């Protein structure tokens, strides 16, 4: 029976929809019923949305609060979340993801041992310009003696060593050293002092870097331990949030042990 209907439809006339008149071509294409249905459906959908929004505005509680009110801003007609500062640095993030607690504690112990070795070999007297420098004041009886006063002769040392506040050798000690000639060679002494000063600055720079590294490893270890402690049972309250310089601080409520 279905095949007969299909055969009968082959002889039917094809009904074509009326097109826009040539006199009305400036108005565009002639709207068909399917076009009208789509337009009407979109129009009613927008009207229903506006009706719901009006009803929400009428029923709104003036005392209600949402965190998006303070954590987002309206940009280009859309609500955007405010970007918060990451409490971890790139090095901390990488260390927390790739290494475990034992590795961090091992590196922390190594850095602490090297720092102690550097501190034992260096004199922390002039490690920076920010430290207050000691003053050595000499008193004389007359102004003439003050004008003619020679601190190198008074301290019995070389003039190039006057700025040193520690391990200042005397002239006799310098003369007994293996310097070329019987007297002290000023050029050799100056070169030696420059090399020693350069080496000392290098050591102090290494010490500063290792101290910073130890502090960074200590922060990472604290964050790892805090992350592990969060899995403990019991109610806890956040006392201080996590930052780049410190781990998060929690306070657990006391629980009675059986």
Architecture blueprint of SSEs:
Elements lengths: L1 H8 L23 H27 L8 H4 E4 L2 E4 L8 H9 L2 H21 L21 H5 L3 H5 L15 H6 L9 H44 L6 E5 L8 E4 L6
Antiparallel strand pairs: 1-2, 3-4
Helix pairs in contact: 5-9
- How far is the first residue's CA from the last residue's CA? 85 Å
Return the string of H and E elements.
HHHEEHHHHHHEE
Strand content: 5-15%
Structural class: mainly alpha
Which residues sit in consecutive blocks of at least 5 with pLDDT less than 50? 124-130, 178-184
Estimate the global geometry from the Cα principal axes. elongated
Question: Major beta sheet, specifics?
Answer: 2 strands, antiparallel
Number of helices: 9
Using DSSP, what is the number of strands? 4
Task: Report mean pLDDT, rounded to a whole number.
Answer: 79
The proportion of residues forming helix, as a percent range, comes to 40-55%
Describe it.
It is a single chain. The protein has 258 residues and is mainly alpha-helical. It contains 9 helices and 4 strands; from the N terminus they run αααββααααααββ. Strands 1-2 form a two-stranded antiparallel sheet. Helix 5 (101-121) packs antiparallel against helix 9 (186-229). The protein is elongated and about 130 Å long. The two termini are 85 Å apart. The model is unreliable at 124-130 and 178-184 (pLDDT under 50).
